[in-house]
Amino acid sequence: MEIDIRHIVAAAAVTTPIMVLFLAGAFIAARSGVDRVSSGQDVLRIAGNFSAMLLRVAAYVVVLLLVQHFIGMRSTFGW
Length: 79
What we know:
This protein is an all-alpha fold. Helices cover about 70% and strands about 0% of the residues. The chain has two helices and no strands. The protein is flat and about 50 Å long. The mean pLDDT is about 85.
């Protein structure tokens, strides 16, 4: 399987904006409810916010895979 530079550039053009938006949203969501990190509770709140956001994104991916499976589309992950 040959990987052409055009495929790499096309994949980067799609994934780069998605990852930038995902990381910006993760930063905003993680800092939600914390003005400045001054105690252990603030660190725990940031960790809780970030983990909740990761779980939510994982749930969205699972639902998307289930919908693709039920409508008859092949998985986009190559399985």
